[in-house]
Every structure is written in C-alpha cells, then in structure tokens.
Amino acid sequence: MAPLTPPRPYGGWPSPIDAALAAALDGRPEYVGTIGPEVWWTEPRPEEEGRRTLVRRPADGRPERPVLPAPWNVRSRVTEYGGRPWTGVERDSGGPLLVFVHFTDQRMYAYEPDAPGVPAPRPLTPVAAVGGGLRWADPVVRGDEVWCVLEEFTGPAPTDVRRVLAAVPLDGSAAESRAAVRELTDDRHRFTTGPRLSPDGHTVARLVWDHPRMPWDGTELLLAEVTGDGTFGPSRTVLGGPDEAVAQVEWAPDGTLLAVSDRGGWWNPYRVDPRGGGAVNLCPREEEFGGPLWKPGLSWLAPLPDGLVAVLHGQGSSVLGVLDPDSGDLVDAAGPWTAWQPTLAVSDSRVFGVAASPRSGYEVVELDTATGHARVIGARAVDPVDPSYYPEPQSRTFTGPDDREIHAHVYPPHHPDRPAPADELPPYVVWVHGGPTDHVPPVLDLHIAYFTSRGIGVVEVNHGGSSGYGRAYRERLREQWGVVDVEDCAAVARALAAEGTADPDRLAIRGASAGGWTAAASLAATDLYACAAIIYPVLDLRGFAAETHDLESRYVEGLAGPPATLDLLNRERSPVARADRITAPFVLLQGLDDPICPPAQAERLLDALRGRAVPHAYVTFEGEGHGFRRADTLIRALEAELSLYAQVFGIERTDVPRLALEP
Questions:
Q1: Mean pLDDT, to the nearest integer, of 367-378?
Q2: How many CB atoms lie within 10 A of CB 113?
Q3: Do 53 and 45 form a contact (C-beta atoms < 8 A)?
Q4: Which residues, listed in sequence order, are joined to residue 240 by a DSSP beta bridge?
Q5: Strands 279-281 and 268-272
Q6: Residue 580 pLDDT > 70, yes or no?
Q7: E strands, 497-652, in order
Q8: pTM (two decimals)
Q9: d(Cα 395, Cα 317) in Å, to the nearest integer?
Q10: Mean pLDDT value across residues 133-137
Q11: Residues 405, 411, 413, 417: is their CA dihedral positive or negative?
Q12: What distance in Å separates the CA atoms of residue 352 and residue 365, rounded to the nearest whole number?
C-alpha cells in the first residue's frame, strides 16, 4: 500500500472535484411519468443554458434518449416555482402524444415524436399579452382536451393573479384565441392543483387553499361531478380544512379515493369516503408519507392495479415501500437508495421514481412489485472521480435551546490521500436549506464534496420548522423565523466546536433563499461565524411581503407574525434593519431575474452597509432567477464561495479566482 501524502492544512487539499464538474452534474431528474409501458421524465442540462429536456426510455429496454432538443425547455412557471410541466397518452393510431409547457413563452405545446417526419411541437395556447401572462401546469389529457391549472395575471403586481382549472383543445384552436379555452372552475380559491379524474371519468378531485395559508398549513380536498358535456357540478369538501394539510389526492384503479393528510400530526395515507363519510388511516405511523406541496403535481403515493399502493415514507428521508391498504402491511424496496423524491409513476406492476444515496446522485429507479427487484433504468449516477473522495454523512440529533431536538447531517472533511493534520481542527460551514418549510436528506452532492475533499467540513441543519419530522416540528418556526432557525444553526455549530469536531474560530454559515435569510440574520445576531455565503436571499420581511410572488406574499404572517406587528418584527429580525450589527465578511450571490427574492432586497442590504468597513462581495448573474441553473453561473458561484473561505480562514488556494472583497 502506497504511503499517504504528508499532511497539508485543512482547506488546502487538492481535489479532482472542481467547480466545473459539480456544475455539470447539478440538478436531478423530475416529474417521472409513463405512457403505456414507456417511462418519461424531465432532466436538467446545465451546459445548455440550464434548460430541462424531456427524456424517454423505450419499453424494449434501449437506453433513454432526450426527445426535445435545445432550445426547448420543459418547465412551468405557475406560482413561479412551477409544477408538473408535461403529460402524455398513447394515440389510437400508435405512438405517444405529448403535451408540455415551454419555459421561454410559457405556452403549452403538443408533440408527436413518432409521427411521420417528426413534425415540430405545435402550440396549444395563445401568446400572453405584454404585461400579462398565461401559465399552465399539472395537465392531463381527457378526450380531445387537456385539463390543467391555468394561472392568469390580471395586472402589473405579482399578486394580480387568478387560478382556475381549464380545458384546452388539442386541435390548436386556443393557440390563436384565449376565448377557445374553457374554464372548468371559478376562481373563488386562490390556489389549486390540477384535476384528478376518477377511473369512470364521472368525478374530479383537486386540492385548494387560500391566503394566508400555505399548503402545509391547511388545504381542502374538493370533489365535483363531471357532466356529460365536460363541465363540473358544484364542488364539495370531503377532507381537509384550515388546520389539516392534504398533500396529495389520487384515485385507485378500482375507484377508491386515496389522500395524504396530516390530520394526525404526521402526513399519513388515508382512504376517503367520497360521500363525505370520513377517512380511514391506512398506515398510522409517526412518519411522513407526504411533504410540503410547493408545486402542483408532486406525488408521494401511487396506486397499483392489484390494489396495493406505492408510498414514500420516513423521517427526514423518504424510502419507497409498497403498502397493502387492507392489512396495513408495508414492505420497503430493497436497494442502496435512502432518499426518494416526490415523483412516482406506475405501469402494471412496476413503480418508477427518483432516488439517491450518500454514495450516488439521483437516478431513475424501477421497482417490479411482482418480483421485488429494483434497478436503475435512467439518468444513471456516474462516478466522475474515484468515490473515495466522497464524504460520509453522519445523521445526528443535537440539543438546542429549551432542550429541543435539532436534526442535522455532518459531512467531515475527507480525502483518500491526505491524512488529517494532527495540530489543527478543520473549518466547518453550516448549510441552511431553503423553504424554510423544507428539509435536506443525506445524499451525495458534489457541491458538498467540493468542499469536504479540500478539507472544509459541512453540516446541513434541518432546523425547527423543517419538514420531514411531523407537524409539531414544522410548527416550531411559526412566528419565530429569524429566531428558532438562527438558534438551532448556532447550537449545532457550537456543539461541533465544543466536542472538538470543528475549529471554533473558523465557522461559516451559508444558505440560499430562506436559508440566505438565516445566514444573514445569523451574522446580525451572533459573532459565532467568521463569514457567510448568502445566496438569492430574503433580507427584509416588509420588502419580501410586498415584492415577492403571490404564493409566498403572505407566508411571513405564519413565519413572523400578523401584519400589525410586521414593522416591529422587521426591526427586530431583518438583516437589512440590523445591518449595523453585521461585521463578518460575506459574499452575496444574486440572480438579476429573480421574481421570488428580487435583487432590490440585496441592494437594500448593501445600501445599509455603505460607509462601514465590512468586507463583502456582491456577485450578480444576468438571466438567472430563483435557483441557479446555468453551468457558468454555478461555477462562478462555487469558486467565489471557496475564495471567501480561503481568505477568511487563512487558506492558500491558487486554483480559484480571488474574490475581491470590499471595502
């Protein structure tokens, strides 16, 4: 065995995982579906301006291939976060008919990839008027129409919007005229998922909610009869309410109505009486069989033709299992995958989903429930470098203020050829997820490996308010945003330092979106961190409420408090209002086309810091919105972050451009 290379300081290790490699493998497959025996999904292309393509895996087992070349970009902007952007059916004449949303113009298109001559996609919906907007998501094909969510902007403000279910003709007549679009529902509810039709086609189910609730606060499951002419009868609520969040509704092939509800404190699967006679919990467990409905079209359960139900379940991370709804027996799929995304599809006895593990990135997996065999069928995770450079996460529970539990995943520095220096402790970066009603599972992420393979540790904190651990854990953040999240992250960082895992003088914090809020608020609340990476953040409660998109325009009422107290809370918690307390260096990374956390918030923070000697850098990216998708952006952002840590932690690195810190 070859001897190890002599020790080098933490943070100064060489690594084959460079920013370009991490960027090239960024993102994951989404929105898995089936058309007959074929499996389809969307897949990211960071090197192609960050677009998402549609990928097809033929039934004969041939390798998957992209169906739509650049510049087609299969992605919806409904509620800005999007939703399921495609659907498909087998044509009577043979071959699939696809319906998808193109990101650039947000029009819905029909496409027949097997048609003679392969004609180009043809538009089904009209061009939006200047200053207005029509957006579509969560479609299903019914006869000669596509039924889906229609989001229509009625004025200049981001909250001037209405949402309904609509029917779009497949003949293309609506491409020239909005009048050809049939509205199936009124707009009395602010938010809706797409339609779920019963097997006999006579009943439609959907989920709705209204301001100020978010979909994890409370939703309603509505049913309506579908008449012979394709219109809806009156809607009735059969499950849910202000304090019960129904995350998904689905019909089983035999006509049984299934739903995922947190009425018992955890998202569990239920059989629902369509006549309003109540619901029966099919698997009562203190586990989550659902999650926050950030986008219409997410799926945590999928009924099988034989009466069994494929489900995702767990605490913190979800695994795939097959549930017998009659006995309550639940059998998990075998395999190395420890985290599954909320996208499931079924064809006969086969279940398809997207899964990852600490040793592999997200890939498309098939479970044959008849044999119990699971295998990768698409987007196969590759090892672009020797896997010995990957970190090994440690899922741990820490103790915070008031003895509350805090869940986190610790990724120690790791390098196969570099022994740990005996005379120093490693620097650590606290990573804060977005949402904040979300969570992170312990899976392979080359962005994390980029740092750990260089000798910088990472700890991902699922602070109070995160999903994945039941409603009570989620509710810890109610009216406490900027307090509980900040305290929990600090408690984890201090614990790592106290036990000798991390260097107490070289701690940093980093977060994007809501995580950017926590990172910036932490700099204003404590001197624990030596620096921070703040990425397309929320920085101002009042500004966020006034400037963000409709979905989250009243989110702060649950996170911080009612409007009457917002001025006071803003002064007490917002990084912009507390900028005079910030002394640690930071880098602020911002997309200039971000409709959720607009650049105005970042600019207000910089204005508040003007004239003060706080080293910082403001790096902006044209053409990027909320969540960086382009390879060149991802590279520049990752290298800027590493340069910040190197300068602040006293690490010599010559492999990344030096970030200019002002003043």
A1: 97
A2: 16
A3: yes
A4: 220
A5: antiparallel
A6: yes
A7: 507-512, 531-535, 586-591, 616-621
A8: 0.96
A9: 11
A10: 96
A11: positive
A12: 6
Number of H helices, E strands in the chain: 10, 38
End-to-end CA distance of the chain: 50
Residues 261-282 have pLDDT tens digits of 999 999 999 999 998 779 999 9
pLDDT in tens, 415-456: 999 888 989 999 999 999 999 999 999 999 999 999 999 999
Rounded CA gap, 221 and 352, in Å?
26
pLDDT at 132: 56
Q: How far apart are CA 538 and CA 598, in angstroms?
A: 9
Q: What angle do CA 481, 485, 487 make, to 5 degrees?
A: 120
Instruction: With beta carbons less than 8 A apart as the criterion, state whether 471 and 550 touch.
Output: no
Which ranges of 526-593 would DSSP assign to H, the alpha helix?
Answer: 541-547, 555-559, 566-573
Question: Phi, psi (5° rounding) for residue 457?
Answer: -80, 155
Averaged confidence pLDDT in the chain: 96
Query: Buried b / exposed e across 576-615, counting CB within 10 Å, b at 16+?
Result: bbbbeebebbbbbbbbeebebbbbebbbbbbebbeeeebb
Q: How many CA atoms lie within 13 A of 93 on its CB side?
A: 5
Burial class (CB in 10 A: 0-12, 13-18, 19+), 123: middle
Strands of 91-169, DSSP E: 96-101, 108-111, 122-123, 133-142, 145-153, 161-169
- Three-state DSSP class for residue 93: coil
- Please report where in the chains the tokens 């299934």 appear, as a residue: 258
Interatomic CA distance for residues 179 and 162, integer angstroms: 16
CA 347 from centroid of its chain's CA atoms: 25
Whether omega before 441 lies within 30 degrees of 0, making that bond cis, reads no
- Measured in degrees and rounded to the nearest 5, phi and psi for residue 229 equal -95, 10
Token readout for 123 is: 């538009």
Mean pLDDT of 296-318: 97
Q: What is the pLDDT of residue 63?
A: 86
Kindly report the number of other CB atoms within 10 A of residue 472's CB atom.
Answer: 10
Is residue 2 predicted with pLDDT exceeding 60?
no
Which secondary-structure segment (H or E) carries 301? strand 301-303
CA dihedral 480, 482, 485, 491 (to 10 degrees): -110
Rg (CA), the chain: 25
Give residue 378's identity as a one-letter amino acid code. Answer: G
Which pLDDT value is given to residue 59?
87
pLDDT at 129: 64
Beta bridge pairs of residue 339: 356
* Tally of residues, the chain: 663
